[in-house]
Design a protein that fits this description.
Oligomer: heterotetramer
Distance between the termini of chain A: 32 Å
CATH topology of chain C: Rossmann fold
Chains: A mainly alpha (about 230), B mainly alpha (about 250), C alpha/beta (about 210), D alpha/beta (about 150)
Structural class of chain C: alpha/beta
Number of strands of chain A: 0
Largest interface: A-C, 31 and 36 residues
Largest sheet of chain A: none
Strand content of chain C: 25-35%
Order of helices and strands of chain C: EEEHEEHHEHHHEHEE
CATH superfamily of chain C: P-loop containing nucleotide triphosphate hydrolases
Number of helices of chain A: 11
Number of domains of chain C: 1
Chain lengths: ~230, ~250, ~210, ~150
């Protein structure tokens, strides 16, 4: 009997989430706005001394990216949990981790990828060394999917709770630390005119590990949250 | 042998059996703990000579190092319980997991505080964002996350499975956090006792250190047993064995 | 003929309260199980355990004689579940919602338009779900049953916010499903009249 | 093999492959120099960045610690047993700071090739010995384990 294959299911789910995001595009811009806002706060708070700003720019950009990603995490599963479509997803005949991966991918495309567009602009405003722009973009490209993947485990654990928000940050932020360290260190090193290959290969390692392990953990956590 | 182990494993998994077993062991463990602690502290604070380099202030290692070891050890205990919970859905493992978390968090806190007290005379500052210190701090957050998540979920069986997943995920992350922070910044000295070649610590200092480490382990078991007993009574408050226990 | 869906010594505990224990059920093809009982007697819990969403305290749910945790995907191909939540997205149209249901890897028997016609929503295919009434939404949720061809239907209060006519329509749909060799488990506060079918009743309050 | 089994097997293979690639990248990173502090030899060779802050690590050369002014300014030489760099620092030094000790300094190079430190941190080694034992070891010319480590 005819049935849709797993890869078709993946694309369907991805397309559905992108469609939903597009139909709520005002919400889509929120993490991006937040990212820009947090970064503009720093020069206001610590003064506009160019050398200082240039030195801490990698850290600021990455801390802001991390917070922006964390704020948007709840959206991965919240509405699906509320209207019961998540329940249906868990009853699918397809392996749930693959479906989870589709949803996380959609989430990243909507909230992580746009950071790539504004990051160079903000880096310029903070006076980051021009040598580091390429590495900055590369770390965002490699790092934000890892944030979404790790974050999805945290959301899956807390989606059933009424006050999941604070707990979520407590669960997720410690797990974000390696990404933060290596990405900002890569930019730092690049700004000093040195090669950042070690940091970049480490981030590639995180990406592959997160891609292969986190959907399984997220699926297990979702099953737990639904029961 | 294996059959015997499986049987033992199942018997230990039954709450009333574990309750009685832990209760009968507690007095003995307390005696062992007292002897070890007194011996370790006397050896460390009185008998051991001052260090050639750090003078008297190195003596804090007799608390600091065992506490730091415990902070890692207890997390491993929790992650192992997590695997048992997810695979065999054993109730006792859930209870052990969640009862270990506050003890682990306290040891982590102790290691951080003693470390920072040590850091002032040695490094000239209470707190440096050093590799060991930072990863220990993150470990504390992981413990707090486990405690917080367990507290937030009302249905305790579900909560047990949730923290099991979290403990396992955290376990994968601990080496990653450890190495990432280590590369990022390194001031803390290398490992002393666990080095493969001969330990670079004099035996007069090593013996009390190991005694203290052992005493901390025993303390963990005592504290764990008491917590688990209390939690079992609470969880099984409607069951027959608890009722019988209080009637007699 | 051997039983399709079985439970073996099923026990469910919620918040320290035993809802049911030692439950042994067996359903053959063509049978419908009506789960009755007071509020909080464990009807929803039982249904969720049967779907595998929740885990029982002890005991097993068997599909064709094997525990569902072992059967895995082959079981989920055969289950259609309609729970308290409609499981449809407000910001998608009716057709988009049903297309997604079909993507979940179950066998596909009929065209989506036919399915909408079956539940009297033919002209609403391109309407956003947000514009539908509560009863229409419920009908769309139940349309899920016919856009994929699963043998086992599990429904939690399928008739909430439906009018008499729609109820009759769905009861007829259920009878057809049973005639084709399907199995149904449902809870309902409404009286169900299905004289032609083999109805098994289970009261959890007793 | 049933299609469901085959699908699951493919997924597991993909997962294992993903982990393997990840571990591969991690090992590759471990093989590269990731510590971004520099040794006096690196500075001599001109590898250290100019006009940028960086960290330098090494041993304080015995007999070079001087306090030229009245204030808290200290000067000393730092070595990695290969090259030497002159360090200037104004501020309170940690207790463990002494000649022959390993330290890490944070700061930047000035035009004369001197390292102007904004922060000095002392590193103590992982050896714990009573003073007499240490003296005896030094006399017999035995090398302390861990002292020949890279960096410090």
């Amino acid at each position: 009997m005819k049935r849709l294959s797993l890869s078709q299911a993946f694309w369907f789910l991805l397309r559905r989430d992108l469609l939903l995001a597009f139909r709520n595009r005002s919400e889509m811009a929120n993490p991006l706005l937040f990212f820009v806002l947090v970064i503009t706060l720093f020069p206001l708070a610590i003064g506009a001394e160019p050398n200082l700003l240039a030195r801490i720019a990698p850290g600021i950009i990455w801390v802001a990216a991390l917070l922006a990603s964390m704020l948007s995490l709840d959206g991965i599963f919240r509405s699906d949990f509320d209207d019961g479509t998540l329940e249906q997803m868990l009853l699918s005949a397809h392996p749930v981790p693959v479906l989870v991966l589709a949803k996380v991918t959609a989430h990243w495309l909507v909230t992580g990828l746009p950071l790539l567009l504004v990051a160079p602009l903000l880096a310029m405003m903070l006076g980051l060394d021009e040598d580091a722009y390429g590495i900055l973009l590369l770390t965002i490209l490699l790092g934000t999917p890892v944030l979404s993947l790790i974050g999805s485990i945290g959301v899956a654990l807390t989606v059933g709770l009424r006050k999941g928000g604070i707990i979520l940050s407590l669960l997720v932020l410690p797990l974000y630390v390696p990404v933060l360290i290596f990405s900002s260190s890569a930019i730092d090193v690049a700004a000093s005119g040195l090669p950042a290959t070690a940091q970049i290969s480490m981030m590639l390692a995180f990406l592959f590990l997160a891609l292969s392990l986190s959907p399984v953990a997220t699926a297990a956590a979702l099953k737990m949250s639904m029961s | 042998m294996f059959k015997w182990f499986v049987k033992w494993f199942h018997r230990m998994g039954s709450p009333p059996h574990f309750y009685r077993f832990a209760g009968s062991w507690l007095p003995w463990l307390t005696v062992v703990f007292t002897v070890l602690t007194v011996a370790g502290l006397y050896g460390g604070l009185v008998l051991a000579p001052p260090d050639y380099q750090q003078g008297e202030s190195y003596r804090i290692i007799f608390i600091h190092v065992p506490a730091a070891w415990m902070s890692m050890f207890i997390y491993m205990v929790m992650a192992s319980c997590g695997i048992i919970v997810l695979v065999w859905r054993m109730k006792l493992a859930e209870v052990v997991l969640i009862c270990s978390a506050p003890i682990g968090a306290s040891f982590t806190f102790l290691a951080l505080v003693t470390g920072s007290l040590w850091g002032k005379p040695m490094w000239g500052t209470y707190w440096v964002w050093d590799a060991r210190l930072t990863s220990e701090l993150i470990l504390l957050f992981l413990y707090l996350g486990v405690i917080g998540l367990y507290g937030a979920i009302d249905e305790k069986r579900v909560a047990g499975r949730a923290v099991a997943i979290l403990a396992i995920v955290g376990m994968i992350n601990i080496p990653i956090i450890h190495y990432s922070v280590e590369w990022w910044n390194s001031l803390h000295q290398g490992a002393t006792v666990t080095k493969m070649d001969k330990p670079s610590i004099h035996w007069t200092m090593l013996v009390p250190l190991l005694l203290m480490a052992l005493s901390f382990k025993v303390y963990f078991i005592i504290s764990l047993f008491q917590r688990v007993r209390a939690e079992l009574l609470h969880r099984e408050r409607n069951s027959r064995w608890v009722e019988e226990l209080f009637r007699s | 003929m051997s039983a399709l869906l079985q439970t073996r010594d099923l026990c469910c505990v919620k918040d320290d309260r035993v809802l049911f224990e030692g439950m042994n059920l067996a359903l053959k093809a063509g049978q419908i199980l009506l789960v009755e009982g007071k509020n909080g007697s464990g009807k929803t819990s039982l249904l969720r355990i049967l779907t595998g969403l929740s885990l029982p305290e002890s005991g097993d749910v068997l599909w064709q004689g094997r525990p569902i945790s072992e059967v895995g995907a082959d079981y989920y191909e055969q289950v259609n579940y309609v729970g308290h939540h409609d499981g449809i997205k407000r910001d998608l149209t009716c057709l988009e919602n049903l297309r997604l249901v079909q993507a979940m890897g179950k066998p596909l028997p009929i065209d989506l338009d036919d399915a909408l016609e079956k539940v009297n929503l033919y002209r609403f295919g391109d309407n956003y779900v947000a514009t539908l009434s509560a009863g229409q939404k419920r009908r769309l949720a139940l349309a899920r049953l016919v856009v994929t061809e699963a043998q086992l239907w599990i429904m939690d209060e399928p008739f909430t916010s439906l009018d008499k006519a729609s109820m009759a329509m769905f009861q007829e749909m259920f009878e057809q499903h049973l005639e084709k060799g399907g199995v149904i488990v449902l809870t309902s506060h409404h009286d169900i009249e299905m004289p032609q079918s083999d109805v098994v009743r289970l009261n959890l309050s007793e | 093999m049933t299609p469901a089994r085959k699908k699951r097997l493919t997924l597991i293979i993909l997962m294992v492959a993903g982990i393997a690639v990840g571990v591969g990248f991690a090992l590759k990173a471990l093989n590269e120099n990731i510590m971004f502090f520099f040794s006096p030899a690196d500075i001599q060779a001109g590898k250290a960045p100019a006009n940028k802050d960086f960290r330098v690590g090494g041993l304080v050369v015995e007999g070079t610690v001087k306090r030229p002014g009245e204030g808290l300014t200290v000067e000393f030489n730092l070595t990695d047993n290969d090259s030497v760099v002159k360090v200037k620092y104004t501020g309170i030094l940690p207790d463990l700071f002494r000649e022959g000790q390993g330290i890490i300094a944070n700061g930047r190079l000035n035009d004369k090739g001197e390292f102007i430190a904004s922060e000095v941190l002392a590193k103590h080694d992982e050896n714990y010995m009573p003073p007499e034992v240490m003296d005896a070891m030094k006399k017999s010319g035995q090398k302390m384990p861990g002292m020949d480590k890279k960096g410090i």
